[in-house]
Amino acid sequence: MHNDDAVPAAHARRPRRGRRAFVIIGAVLVVALVLIAAEVTRRTLAEQDDLRTDPAFYAVPTPLPEGEPGEIIRIEAIASAPVGTNAWRVVYHSRDIAGEDIPVSGIVIVPDGPAPEGGRTVIAWAHPTTGAATRCAPSLGLDPFQDIEGMHELLAEGYAIAATDYPGLGVEGDSSYLLGVPESNSVLDMVRAAREIDDARVSEHLVLWGHSQGGQAVLFAAERAAEYAPELKLEGVAVAAPAANLNALMTDDIVNLSGVTIASFAIPAYEVAYADTYSSSAITAILTPAGLEATPDMAALCLLTQNEEIHEIADPLVGAYVTSDPASTEPWQTMLEENSAGNSPISVPVFVGQGEADELVLPSATEGYVKLLCSQNADVTFHRYPDVTHGLAAYASLPDLLLWLPTLGSQRSPGDGCR
């Protein structure tokens, strides 16, 4: 009798426990959604505040006060930094292609937890092409962190991240588009600036990481780091679909929309950078009349945010922008060679990731660069990713990159990229 009564009583209690669990789970989900909504609101409002203050922050004094490379000119905390991080926007001193003092902007972001003894290893991030006009700087975006590929994963591993805009982006100045020396100077000086921020706790240990244009920038930085920034301890350089061989890049792409866009960004930058060596007419002689007329308008546009306008100008110029292949036409052949990676050996481990479906930086171009590294006895780790396009090369590389990073700075087996 008592057992018969107990069975239905037990069954009667189960739904109540189920309902309580459902209520608890529902309450947790509501709290989580409220917190997420609050975080989204916080970041959005902070981002909007940033946009209102940007113009004053990026306007530097004229003439520029003297400063050592990496010395901070201006700094402000970024209120819209993701939860669990601290971040700063900075303007700092760097050097142009002639060695003259110039201001450059960028951001630093670190985990908000305690740093290890000696400080955090810093990842110097070099971004892919966003444009060549001042307003195309990543740090000027509504979300200044969105273009740092692998940011969350790297922060989770305890790294600090120093991300330059490059000269001419953010702070008004001459464009450095696809110019290896000023780009690489800005990458290394960004690290120096990060080390000046006491709360960032950044050490002298450094890894370079770049995608596309950023690949060219960090490869140049790796070649030049020992001479330009000897106080930094470079441990390795990682690239995804790097614009390493500019001659190959131009030959492969000048016949399509990407090539027209890239060339239109590069021509004004090279005109200024090489003004003491070549006349403006010598540099622009390769352009058709229509190409010459369209270049200033193209160079004023930003990639991704103004793709429709870029297509409108560039589509009619495909096949009619230049009169010959820049890679085999002087002075472009020489200028492109001078700004291609590989003119000096790299003494630290090199990680290379390449998508096999890339139609901008072709796999053959990256394979050719890897062969050059191997001929220079570099320690190369080379990963190919089937069906991966140019835009996804950095993300595809992340799992392998995160396995490669801990092998740096200690005894390690050489990479297998040259076997």
Q: How is the topology of this model organized?
A:
Elements: H1 2-58, E1 72-77, E2 85-95, E3 101-111, E4 120-126, H2 151-156, E5 160-164, H3 180-195, E6 202-211, H4 213-228, E7 233-240, H5 246-253, H6 257-273, H7 280-284, H8 289-299, H9 307-314, H10 332-338, E8 350-355, H11 363-375, E9 380-385, H12 393-404
Parallel strand pairs: 4-5, 4-6, 6-7, 7-8, 8-9
Antiparallel strand pairs: 1-2, 2-3, 3-5
Overview of the structural elements:
It is built from twelve helices and nine strands. The N terminus is likely disordered. Helix 3 crosses helix 4, helix 5 crosses helix 6 and helix 6 packs across helix 8. The chain is 42% helix and 17% strand. The protein folds into two domains: 255 residues, Rossmann fold (3-Layer(aba) Sandwich); 91 residues, no CATH class. The chain is globular and about 60 Å long. It has 419 residues and is an alpha/beta fold. The chain has a nine-stranded mixed beta sheet, sandwiched between helices.
**What is the 3D form?**
globular
Which segments are poorly predicted (pLDDT under 50) over 5 or more consecutive residues?
Answer: 1-15
Q: Give the second-level CATH assignment, the architecture of the largest domain.
A: 3-Layer(aba) Sandwich
Structural class: alpha/beta
- Name the CATH class of the largest domain: Alpha Beta
